[in-house]
Amino acid sequence: MQWPMKVFLKGKLTIIAIAVSIGILCLSLLKINVYEPMDLQHIDKLHHSLAYFILATCWLFALQKKQSKYVIVLCCIFFGIVLEILQYAITNYRTGDYLDVLANSFGVILGVFVFNKVSKKNRLKNEKTSN
To answer: pTM for the whole thing?
Structure first.
């Protein structure tokens, strides 16, 4: 099952990462009426962390052989900061929030952690099969 997925994703990871980036951009700057069934304080921070976890992992896997992971991490965090500044500066229906920046950054760091674990597992698996 893993082999067909690798064939399907080959060459498409960058497109997926770009799509995720555009999706986050749109969700961050467009006015979207969302119904929240539960009135939980700061639940949006979980959404921010999840979105930036997905963003970071997509870019890390897409560019793992072309770019340093630290450059990718810094770009993802910078992207989140810029979007929060834009929310504050150009919209009247969104607010920039430093807690959102922290949640975004947490998601990126979690993405790096998962990427490192998966990469290490794959590297060990490849070394084991080549011996």
So the answer is: 0.84
